Amino acid sequence: MLTDLPLDQLESYRSSQTEPPDLDDFWAGTLAEAAGHDIGLRLSPVATGLTTIDTYDVTFRGYAGQDVRAWLRVPAGHPGPLPAVVQYVGYGGGRGHACENLFWASAGFAHLQMDTRGQGSGWSVGETPDPAPAGPQVPGVMTRGILDPASYYYRRLYTDAVRAVDAARSLPQVDADRVAVLGGSQGGGLAIAVAGLRADLAAAVAFVPFLCDFPRATRITDSYPYREIADYLKTHRESVERVHRTLGYFDGVNLARRAGAPALFSAALMDATCPPSTVYGAFHEYAGPRRMLLWEYNGHEGGGILDEVRALEFLREHLAA
């Protein structure tokens, strides 16, 4: 069943999200602090038994100079710098196993898959801790530090995601002028955020993105992870304004307004996890060239493999030498 607005209303929908007046200063200071730490890039070859893909265990320094793990996968024996895809993972997941997620390297890209701090136990393995103090929160990470943008969990994760692009550009296997970001759900939200926080991307891809249009998302869906915020506000009744103030610094709607790289989005009309209006809220604000893949009879799986096939065509168009 449809979970949200019909298509004609999605095309005219605009988010009610407003921008914090110091949004740009907040992110400039956060990213400048992170950039003060050397990227600390470390690579170790991994023996996977695969003959067509070379895999490396990667560590780089993200938020506050803290170590973040990743996998690098490249076509075996490729002699020169490659276009790169930096991929972010969906909610609850980590970078997974070294032999998983072989699509992008098989298609000829250098593929850096970032681990997700403090997650990576829900449906795939992760190895990056989130050492920040948590405080009172609903289980999950959506409300970790949510009363202040400086302490909010996603300040750290968004910074890691930006630094992953720095790590990719530092790799000898990568052509630094041809780097794209990509992800689905939470990973799609991270791709939008990074596109808004950097001006040097070749492209961005966001499948059924999460972390968009919080004022609407937290009120129209009963599904987790957005439901974590509603659960928190059920008991912290006097913190509604304060929580939404924090979320404004991390909303894909606000960060999309700052993005310039060509972008491919996807949305699904039967998606209860990331309702399509929330995706369109960010899509309509995206400042760079943008396209939408809309799946009428799908839920949060979106277009599945067809999303990736269309993204492959899109990235070959924008990352061609």
From TrEMBL:
Pfam families: AXE1
Binding site for substrate: 91
Catalytic-site annotation from UniProt: 185 (nucleophile), 271 (charge relay system), 300 (charge relay system)
UniProt keyword list: Hydrolase
Broad class of enzyme this protein falls into: hydrolase
GO molecular function, one term: cephalosporin-C deacetylase activity
InterPro entries (UniProt xref): AB_hydrolase_fold, AXE1_dom, CE7
EC code(s) of this entry: 3.1.1.41
Gene Ontology biological process terms from the UniProt entry: polysaccharide metabolic process
Region of interest (Disordered), ranges: 1-21
Domain Acetyl xylan esterase span(s) in chain numbering: 2-317
Keyword Hydrolase in annotation: yes
Protein name, per record: Cephalosporin-C deacetylase
UniProt lineage: Bacteria, Bacillati, Actinomycetota, Actinomycetes, Micromonosporales
